[in-house]
């Protein structure tokens, strides 16, 4: 796009709402299928988080201290039976059928331990309420789906913010790469790490929209989105406030932010709401000790800060497994070739943003990249002597998704031709097909692990025989649906980035036939320059959008 090109009209309110609902539907379908395709309790530390959620739902957010870092909660007895997942967790060749059925009643409360007892209760309030209405496995699957709803809302909000930017092609490409199998998988299990990642994603995206000079009419919406994402982020895990401070701090470096927000009353009201949310998180951590963890891990009392920092820094390029696919209790790993391919694409996007971006967008990307590299050594190095080695790669996914957003925005705002992706549709198609293929393989690989065991990558033929454990609906049925849904998501991203109508012409005509003429006319004017609201027409109004 050249300087003489007309400024593209901003999307109207109905267009943004329709996009958000569509993105939510796709993301919830993907994470929801992970919810039902993996055994209950198989997610990382999921048993502890389910017990904590049950305790919060039954009015006991703190529990009773029983030992260091562990608390007892009075919860329905079926949550006690989920501890039977110990029969297959950390044992890759043991199918999940060893766990047996989960029975019990929501009226029979028993004390159950949870290592997550001191965590902030906000996330658990979102996911624990099904235990008040349902019983047995139904309640626990519903808890997973409730978590998937929350995560999908936050991720869809972030997608909507990047969609609304005046230049969006590289940004949408970058966040498609940010939707790794690990991110979607975590959205389908009960673990506050998923909310942390999704809230950081939404916050970074809304802040990127906030400083878009071509979108002054979306400033208030961007502020609201940033407030909601910040409050959720700081109240996820003990490290959540740090992630929020980093993402907001990087945004505050940009003078465009202050030119837009400095004199707005609604911004300062929003800042007050953010402060209240952060204040509650700080009060909870100080009063409950939520930042503490159980001790006794490798290297406790032996490894100094300098030694820990050096070790973690030297492993920076080896952490990709946890970003892309380290499922369950680290006992179902994507092949290293797939991990290297995906992390390689991430690396190229970030380096391209640093080289080809310009101005404040490139500076923000540079600072975020430095933080991403230094945070694991600093955090683990500072805790190694007192707690031991507690780090997992997925802990920094919140900053990784923010880094990729910064890279995409830097490319969109940079000197590189914005329509370059459109001029190489074959390369872009190959990228999307590859990402879908890795998603699909990761899904069936994890299902196989719990159905028959890993067998070091062999044993695929055993899936064709009766297995000890099967996901609801059957192994191949849910895998095919998942693959088709991921393919649909990729097709939509393709049409957005290449500035094609979201609906094929034939389907659009069918939709128009059932639409009253007045609504159709309003829809055509939805994104006209100066428009402030209305109508759900998505497609051709955005074909002039920057990429």
Structure description:
The structure is a single chain. The chain is mainly alpha-helical. The chain has one domain (13-506). The chain contains 21 helices and 5 strands. The protein has a 3-stranded antiparallel β-sheet with strand order 1-2-3. Helix 8 (192-210) runs parallel beside helix 17 (397-413) and helix 9 runs parallel beside helix 12 (265-288). The longest helix is centred in the N-terminal third of the chain and has 29 residues, at 136-164. The radius of gyration is 23 Å and the shape is globular. Mean pLDDT is 86; it is low at 1-8 and 515-547.
In brief, what are we looking at here?
The protein is mainly alpha-helical and 547 residues long. It is 59% helix and 4% strand.
Number of strands: 5
Report on the biggest sheet: 3 strands, antiparallel
Helicity, as a percent range:
55-70%
- What class do helices, strands and sheet pairing give? mainly alpha
What is the subunit organization of this protein?
single chain
Q: How many structural domains? A: 1
Overall average residue pLDDT: 86
- Number of helices in the DSSP assignment: 21
Beta-strand share of residues? under 5%
Low-pLDDT residue intervals, each spanning 5 or more residues? 1-8, 515-547
Distance between the termini: 9 Å
**Strand order, sheet with most strands:** 1-2-3
Order of helices and strands: HHEEHEHHHHHHHHHHHEEHHHHHHH
């Amino acid at each position: 796009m050249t300087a003489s090109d007309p400024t593209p009209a901003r999307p109207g309110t109905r267009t943004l709402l329709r996009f958000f609902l569509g993105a939510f539907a796709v993301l919830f379908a993907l994470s929801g299928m992970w919810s039902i395709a993996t055994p209950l309790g198989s997610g990382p530390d999921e048993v502890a988080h389910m017990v904590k959620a049950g305790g919060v739902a039954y009015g006991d957010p703190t529990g009773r201290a029983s030992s260091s870092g562990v608390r007892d909660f009075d919860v329905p007895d079926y949550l006690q039976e989920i501890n039977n997942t110990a029969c297959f967790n950390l044992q890759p060749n043991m199918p999940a059928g060893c766990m047996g059925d989960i029975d019990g009643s929501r009226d029979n409360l028993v004390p159950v331990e949870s290592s997550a007892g001191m965590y902030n209760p906000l996330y658990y309030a979102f996911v624990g309420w099904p235990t008040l209405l349902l019983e047995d496995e139904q309640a626990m699957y519903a808890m997973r789906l409730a978590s998937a709803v929350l995560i999908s809302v936050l991720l869809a909000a972030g997608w909507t913010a990047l969609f609304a930017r005046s230049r969006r092609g590289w940004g949408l490409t970058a966040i498609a790469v940010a939707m790794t199998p690990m991110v979607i998988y975590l959205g389908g299990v009960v673990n506050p790490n998923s909310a942390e990642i999704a809230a950081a994603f939404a916050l970074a995206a809304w802040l990127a929209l906030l400083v878009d000079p071509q979108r002054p009419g979306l400033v208030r919406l961007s502020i609201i989105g940033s407030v909601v994402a910040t409050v959720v982020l700081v109240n996820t895990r003990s490290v959540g406030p740090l992630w929020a401070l980093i993402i907001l701090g990087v945004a505050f470096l940009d003078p465009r932010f202050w030119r837009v927000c400095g004199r707005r009353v609604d911004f300062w009201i929003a800042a007050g709401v953010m402060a209240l949310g952060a204040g509650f998180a700080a009060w909870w951590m100080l009063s409950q000790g939520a930042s503490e963890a159980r001790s006794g891990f490798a290297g406790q009392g032996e490894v100094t800060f300098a030694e820990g920092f050096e070790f973690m820094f030297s492993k920076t390029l080896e952490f990709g497994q946890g970003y892309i696919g380290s499922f369950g209790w680290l006992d179902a790993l994507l092949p290293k070739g797939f991990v290297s391919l995906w992390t390689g694409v991430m690396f190229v996007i970030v380096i391209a943003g640093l080289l080809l971006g310009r101005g404040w967008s490139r500076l923000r990307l540079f600072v975020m990249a430095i933080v991403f590299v230094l945070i694991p050594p600093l955090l683990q190095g500072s805790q190694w002597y007192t707690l031991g080695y507690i780090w997992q790669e997925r802990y920094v996914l919140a900053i990784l998704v923010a880094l990729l957003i910064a890279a995409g925005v830097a490319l969109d705002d940079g000197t590189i031709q914005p329509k370059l992706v459109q001029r190489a549709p074959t390369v872009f198609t190959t990228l999307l097909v590859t990402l879908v293929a890795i998603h699909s393989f990761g899904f069936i690989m994890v299902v196989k692990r719990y159905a028959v065991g890993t067998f070091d990558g062999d044993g695929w033929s055993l899936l064709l025989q009766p297995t000890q454990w099967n996901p609801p609906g059957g192994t191949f049925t849910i895998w095919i649906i998942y693959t088709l849904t991921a393919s649909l998501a990729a097709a939509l991203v393709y049409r957005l980035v290449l500035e094609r109508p979201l609906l094929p012409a034939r389907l659009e005509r069918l939709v128009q036939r059932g639409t009253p003429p007045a609504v159709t006319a309003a829809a055509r004017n939805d994104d006209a320059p100066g428009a402030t609201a209305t109508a759900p027409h998505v497609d051709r109004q955005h074909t002039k959008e920057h990429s």
